[in-house]
Amino acid sequence: MTLPEPIPWVHLLTPSEAEAWIDCCNYDLQQCIPQAGASGCGVRFSLAAGGDIFLHTTQEGIVLLDVTPDAQWAAPVIAAAADIAQPDTQIWHFPDDKLIQFVLGLSSLVASTTMVLQHDFKRNRKRIALQR
Predict the structure, then answer these.
(1) To 10 degrees, the CA torsion angle through 26, 27, 30, 31?
(2) What DSSP letter does each residue of the chain carry, written as one string?
(3) Which of 22-31, 47-56, 64-73, 108-117 has the weakest average pLDDT?
(4) C-beta of residue 11 within 8 angstroms of C-beta of residue 114
(5) Strand partners, 125
(6) ∠87-18-15 over CA atoms, to 5°?
(7) Residues paired with 56 in a beta bridge
């Protein structure tokens, strides 16, 4: 399957802008998610200096990040932006009340985003994406 072209990122400057982007993204995901069998829906942030970060929020209010090996350089920024400790794994977990801080802190590093309808947050990954 050929993935669609990513959407260029517009740098967010305020918490209100980050919150509006999250709300818009959430709305778009709800419109696109298949009603049955969808898991790991979210956003792929492609970083300007290389690497990808996959973001998914659970119904329990947990943010899951899959920081790919070539995006590990951004780990200190993620930890500082979300005010959390850097984990020893590729998969990060933090409460969704840190999501606005995360998006705002990451904003200057992002080149583009792609809506992802399925992402396996395990070693063997399957990714299906839609343009956002």
Answers:
(1) -140
(2) -PPPPPEEP----SHHHHHHHHHHHHHHHHHHS-SSS--S-EEEEEETTS-EEEEEE-TTSEEEEEE-GGGGGGHHHHHHHHT-PPPSSSEEEEEGGGHHHHHHHHGGGEEEEEEEEEE--SSS--EEEE--
(3) 22-31
(4) no
(5) none
(6) 95
(7) 64
Contacts of 94 (CB under 8 A, 6+ apart): 62, 63, 65, 82, 84, 102
pLDDT digits (tens, 9 = 90+) for 64-89: 899 999 999 999 999 999 999 999 88
For the chain, give the percent of residues with pLDDT over 70: 82
| pLDDT tier for residue 109 given thresholds of 50, 70 and 90 | very high
Q: Do the beta carbons of residue 81 and residue 106 sit within 8 Å?
A: yes
Return d(Cα 115, Cα 124) in angstroms, integer.
Answer: 20
Structure tokens at 82: 């979300």
Task: Copy the structure tokens of residue 114.
Answer: 């792609």
**Tokens 């802008």, residue located:** 17
Residues 21, 11: contact at Cβ < 8 Å? no
User: What are the phi and psi torsion angles at 86 (to 5°)?
Assistant: -75, 125
